Amino acid sequence: MHYSLTHADELVAAGGLAAVFSAGDDQETDITTDGGQFKTLSAQYLARPAALP
Hints:
The chain has one domain. Helix content is 42%, strand content 0%. It contains three helices and no strands.
């Protein structure tokens, strides 16, 4: 998630269009246990999103 939200321009250049994030397995970190990382990074991305071709 960290890489996807901080290098979105690289993912778009490689042909990426979207990314989906979810809690997944019970043992994985989720939005309530990640120390605010998803909230912070997604807000930074939304303030300056990657341009699509």
